[in-house]
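Table 4 source record.
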Amino acid sequence: MRLIDKARHRLARWRRPPLHPKRLVANADAFWDILEKNAAIDRLATGFEFTEGPVWLPSRAALVFSDIPRNTIHEWRN
């Protein structure tokens, strides 16, 4: 089995159904300095394989993230 096939096989085992959180959970209290505890959670998009990011770009007023397997960078603006 080729190395890339082994990696894909391992990723397939680790995939889980998408989470649908009903509330936010923070690992550090400083998180609440930038976000309200009762903030609404919105799903912006679905259908990605393996994403990395996001990064906020103030100059573009956009949220940017990448879909690694598809070699694609996505941009979201409100």
